[in-house]
Fold this protein.
Amino acid sequence: MNRFPFNHSGYPSPRIYASAALLATCFVLGCCGAPGADQPEADPLPEISTELGAEEVTLEVVAGSCDEALMQALADAFMEENPQVTIDLTLDDCTQLPANAPRLMASDDPPDLIRLSTLGTAVQDGQLTNLDRYAEAYGWDQLPETQRELLRVSDDGHTRGDGSLYGMPFGFGLTGVYFNKAKAEAIGMSQPPTTVEEFETLLAEAEAAGETPMMASNQDGLVAYAYQGLANQFADRDALAQWIYTAPEASFDIDGTLQAAEDIQRWVEAGYFPDGINSLNQDQALGQFIDGEGVFYYSGNWRAATLDEQMPDNAGFFLMPPAEAGDPQVAMSAPAGMAVPRRSDQINVAAYFLNWLQTDAPRALQVQISGLAPAGSPDQAMPEVPAGSVSEAVLQAWADLNEGDGLIAFLADATAGINTSALIPELQLLVEGRTSPEEFVAAVQDAYEQELGS
Amino acid sequence: MSSALDRRSPDPPPLSTAPGRNHRHGPQPVLRRLLPIHGARRGRWLGWLYVLPALLVYAVFVLLPMARTVQYSFYDWNGVGPATAVGFDNYERVFTDPELISTIVHAFQLIVFFTVIPILVGLVVSSLVREVATGRFGTVARTTLFLPQIVPLVAAAIAWSWMYSSQGLVNQTLSVMGLDSLTRPWLADFTWALPAVGLIGSWVMTGLCTVLFLSGMAKIDKSLYEAAKVDGAGRISEFFAVTLPGLRQEIGVCVTITMIAALASFDVIYASTQGGPGRATQVPGVEIYRLAFTENQIGLGSALAIVLTVLVLACVLPIQRLVSEKNA
C-alpha cells in the first residue's frame, strides 16, 4: 500500500530526495552563467544605400495601437509608391510597448522599425542602429536641431540630447492650452494671455463666473502637462532639458521646478482644476471639455483633429505664455520617434522609410489623421488644414516655436520608469495637498537617481 | 524553505512532507522499506515513468522559472544587457525602501477584505441558504452567489471602477439616500481607495466561500442537528456547536485560497487603480510588474517576488497544519 511514492511514514522518503535533486538540477540548468550574457551577435552593417532595389522586400514595423490609423495610412501610402516593399505592421498597446520593445528587439526575429520614445537603454544594450551615416546621406542634418535632440544618444548610451542619431520622427506632439471660444469670450478673454500671471487672472475670472477654469486629468498623472508648461517658463530651458536627457549630475532641484509645483498646488486650492481630478483619465477630460465643462483644457496637438470635429469653430489653442512678457516661448514637444533595431536585416529600407516620412505626402497624413506637427523642415509647405480651425492654430504655434529654439522634451520621457515611479503618484499627492512642493521636487529627483543608479 | 518551517514545529521529522503524523511508529517503516524487494523497486521506476511527461512540463514551466527568478534576484539586470552580480543588495532594498514595504503592508490589509469579510459573510449566508432555500430556489441562490467567481477579475474591476466613479452607482445611491456629504470618487480618495478595491475582492470571494460552505454543510450528519435541537439549542448555539466545527476543513480551504488571492493580488488593482492615488493601493504584485517591465529592474522585481512567495507560504502553511491537525 505504502509503495513509493505514496509514503506516509513521516520520514524522509525517496520522493523528497528526488524532488530536491530535480530542483537542484533545474537550478543548475537554469542558472548556468549570468543573465544577459548570451547576446546574439549582429551581422555587420550593410553597405549604405539610399535607393530601393527592384527586389521584393518585407519591412516589419512595430508601432503603438494608439497610432493605428496614422501608421496604417502611412504604410498604405508607402506601399502604393513602392510596390516592391510590403510593410508588415504589428501594433502593440501604447502603454505596454516601451516595456515590450527591448524584448522584441532581442528576439530571434527583431522588427526592422520600432516606435520608441526613450532611447537610452536600448543604445546601451547595443540594440539600435546608429543612423549618423544615413543622416549625412539623406541630408537630415539640415533639419532644425531641437527636433532631433531627443533622438540623439551619447556613445555610452547614458545621456540623450547629444551624440549620434538613433531615430527619426513621424511627427511631433506639442502640448498647450485649448480654450472654449464662447466661454473664453464670456470671461473677457479677447486674445491669448501673454504672461503666466495674465493666464492666472483669466483662470480666476473663470472660477468667479462659476465655470471649471481648467480641464485636465490626473488619474494618469497628466497634470504633468500643465506642471511642465509652468516649469518650462520658470526654469532655464537647457538645465531642464539636461535633466530630461539624463546628463551626468543633472538635477530636478533647479530654479523654477519648485515654483511650478507651488503654482499647481495653489491652482488646485483656488478651484481652478475640476473636482476629483485624480479620478479623471484623459479620455474623460476630453469628453467633459467637449461637453462644455471647462474654459481651458491642457492637452496636446493629437486632440486637435477630434476637437475640430466635435467643437467646430468653438475651440482655440495657445501655448503656455512665458513668465515675463516678451520672453521666448518654450513648449513641451516630443518627436514620435521610430528607431531601427541593430539586428534588422532591412536597415537600408528602414532608413529609406524614415526619410520618406519627412516628405510632403506623409506629412499631410501626420497632420490630418493625428493632428501631429509634421516631421521635416519648417521650410516645406505646411499641409493644408481648414482656415480658422484649431488644427490651424496648433500648426501656427508649432511654426512659431521652430523660429526660436523653443522645444523641450517631456519630463516623463526622462527615464523608462520616472512616470510610474514618481511623476504620476507624486502629482496625485501634490494636487491633494498630501505632499509639499518641496517634497515633490525631492521625490522626483530621488526616484530619478535610484533608477539611474547614481 | 522546509528547514525554516521545521524549526517551528516541536518535534520535527526532518524534511517530511506530512509533519506531525505517525511519529510514534518509530523506525519500522524504514526497516520495511529497506528490506524489500524487487517488486517495490520496479514500481518505483515505473512510477517515475508515469509522471515523467507531467514532470517535464512542470519542470520547464514552473521549477525552471522559479529557479531563474531566484537567480535574477541576485543581479542588477535590465533584462537585455549584461548583468552585474550584487549579492543581497536587492533584498536589502526590499526591506529598507519604505515604498516597497508599504506595498507589503497593503497586501496584508487586503486580507481583511479578501479573507475575513468573505468568510464571515459566507458563513451567515450559507447558514441562511441551507435553511431557507431548498429545491429550485436553492439552485438559483447558489448560482447567483457563485456568479461573481466566474467573472474575470479584470472585468469585475472595470465594472466596479465605473460604479465607484464620481457619477457612478455608489455615489448615486448615496445621493438618493440623502447622504451627499459622503459621495466622493472612491478610487481616487487616499483614505478610501484601498477599502474600495478590497470590497471588489470581497464581492468576488464571498460567492466562492458560500458555495464551499454549502457543500460542506451538506456533508454534516443531520442527526447532529436533531440532537442539538433535542438538547434545546437555538439557531445560534446550533451554528457554533454543529455547523462551525463541521466546516473546519472548508474554512481552511477558503482561508488558503483567499489569502493567496489577497497577498498576490494583481488584476483587480492593475485594472482599477494601478496602485494610485499616489501609492495608496500599490501592492507587491503590481509593483513587481512595474519594477521588472516598466523600470527594467529585473533583479529588484525578482527579489520582491521571492519575498512575496516566502510571505505567502509563511502565511498559508501554518493554516494547513492548523486545519488538518485539529481535524485528526
